[in-house]
Amino acid sequence: MLVAISFYLLAFVAIASAFMVVASRNPVHSVMFLIVTFFSAAGLFILMGAEFLALLLVMVYVGAVAVLFLFVVMMLDVDFVELKQGFLQYLPFGFVVALILLAEMIMVGAAYFTGETKALATYSGEKSNLERFGEVLYTDYAFFFEAAGLVLLVAMIGAIVLTLRERDGVRKQDITKQVGRTRETAIEMVDIESGQGVG
Amino acid sequence: MPNLYLVIPEILLAVSASLLLGFGVSKTKNRAPIVRLIAIAVLVLYSVLSFLLGSQDGEAFKGALIIDGYARYVKFFIGMAAAAGLLLAGDYLEREKLDKYEFSVLTLYAVLGMSIMVSANNLLALYIGVEMQALALYVMAAFNRDSLRASEAGLKYFVLGALSSGLLLYGISLIYGFTGTLNFEAVATSIQSNGLSAGVVAGMVFLLCGLGFKISAAPFHMWTPDVYEGSPTPVTGFFAGAPKFAAIALIARLVMGPFGDITDQWQQVIIVLAVMSMFIGAIGALRQTNIKRLMAYSSIANMGYALVPLAAGTVSGLRGMLIFMTIYLITVIGVFACILQMRIRDGMVERISDLSGISKTNRGMAIAMTAFMLSLMGIPPLLGFFGKLFAFYPAVQSGLTWLVVLALIASVIGAFYYLRVIKTMWFDESEHEFINPVRALSWTSAISALLLIGFVMIPFVARTGQDWISIAATSLF
Q: Chain B contacts of A153, Cβ < 8 Å?
């Protein structure tokens, strides 16, 4: 009962916020609704018993992809009014795509109601699938894990090589220099004759 | 651990690249040349280690990598080609004010990626290897980031490379879906026991297309001329050699290993790639005026020739491909050592007409360049002839005579532009004199020109070299 309630709640929120992604006028709001959609989808995955996938979804899509979208929307000055001007022009094309999608949905539904479905393979072991992943990730798949890490390192080196510019004439705070100053180096005693000023 | 013993060369590369990266961020003066010298030493050591040390075959990391005679042979030449590339790059980078230590580090990582590609025994290892070398190469193409053309080259290479990664991944997922395994041997067993399904064939075609991008076989060659022209010249020289050898070696392992039983399926794909590459490479080069673009089309054509013996699908075909690619690698290093010597007082020049009359001003370079061009044409006393002989003979043996006839027609068309370069050098009026090259450049071009003279190489070609190549080729069957 609880599972059913949470499924319908999550599914409803997912669809409603997905609709709002398209419908809302402010692009920042769209990205926020997208994040809500991702969270609801993650909840659905947990209901299916795929908690690892759910965590990945939150970490990758919410943590990285959606934040990247937010950056792009906020940093780049995309003129959404201009983007919407070709709307009527692309309408027939969009209509065709929508029809194809509808046909696909109907076929999926028909397959479901005629009973030609394949049941989801559920895993019923004593270990959670996160533990299972951990067991093979650092043993059987250790090489792939390390090599993938090196691929990411290469990507990072590349990003730095292509963008980092060392500028000359930048004054940087050198803390050891500041702390190492003594009274002798910092203070200069000057005798000022009276009536001459500090000149 | 007996497993780790097999991959010592790869571990050496990974560890030394990471240590050099750490050294590079220190404030040591002149750290770029120091890092480069160490990297060259590491690459030579890698070649020697991978060839000599691993006299035993085996699989490492639970079948992810396979180390056999074939992998050892290819790795030796990839490491040597990369070392030569770094050696040639030094002078250019210093003069163009591009000398950053990351260049050498990225080369090491690229070679590590190629090494994984060559030894891949698993579709996941294949993908990771391809991605690692590709990412390093994208950055090297755009290394001169202030030049518009280099940035364009890097971006073009990146976008098309991403497309090819997509094709690769799609193919891998189809094969995984239809056979239920990523391991090469298991894929072969699954095809044997379950028969051939359309999904596996589609996946295989996608895989070959994705790798076709990497060897710039037509119709996946569109990026090659622009990237070759825009990239810094030593990077272009590196691109034309080692990565192609690694990718074509991977293609050979794929078609002989997991898809060894369905020869008639992949043979058509390889033949189409070969014929299109040979003719597009030969005809496209006719109207080029830039020597780097010319070499781009020449490399497309040569990849076509290298695919001809592969299409035969026999041991001798594989041997022919290895011999052809080895000779091509030596030639390309020499050609780019010559192109890097095309420097006048104002900087580099790269038009073919800039070579006019250098037989009078730079006689040594003119002789070397002539040897390379004649070898690329396949004129008998030079090694290029033997390359084509060993490449085309197996194809005739397995009844692909018509393919060889096409290859010969393409060679004749290609001879035109190689001859034009020779004619420009010897018979045209000189425009300007090139400044004296540094010793590394002139020595490299001289050595690779000497290596190409068949008489010097005949003992090698006849005995020892043939033995190595035969061991390498048979280890895939």
A: 18, 109
